[in-house]
């Protein structure tokens, strides 16, 4: 699978999960409509009820697509919203991923 891969981990406060999901759904819709260089932007629920996690697997066509995403008004809105509302237990963690084995699809 080509491109640049990242995993972003959000750790919402247990009573703010619904709000964080609302925020990331808005971001996801924006990315799909406005950032064609984003090849995959898939969100998952993880963790426990006491320590929930929301994780996004991101795949970009190239570094230019990453740069567009990082400088987007919607990502800035997500950060500003977090600063105002304090929905997360800790800072967002972004991990670059380097595929080395396995497969993503049987097609």
UniProtKB/TrEMBL annotation:
Top-level taxon: Eukaryota
Annotated ABM domain residues: 10-73
Pfam families, sorted: ABM
Protein name: ABM domain-containing protein
Species in which this protein is naturally found: Triangularia setosa
């Amino acid at each position: 699978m080509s491109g640049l891969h990242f995993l972003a981990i959000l750790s919402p406060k247990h009573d703010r999960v619904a709000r964080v999901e609302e925020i990331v759904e808005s971001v996801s819709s924006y990315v799909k409509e406005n950032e064609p260089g984003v090849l995959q932007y898939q969100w998952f629920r993880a963790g426990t009820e006491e320590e929930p996690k929301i994780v996004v697997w991101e795949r970009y066509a190239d570094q230019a697509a990453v740069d567009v995403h990082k400088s987007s008004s919607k990502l800035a809105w997500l950060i500003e919203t977090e600063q105002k509302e304090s929905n997360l237990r800790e800072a967002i963690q972004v991990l670059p991923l380097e595929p080395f084995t396995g497969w993503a699809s049987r097609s």
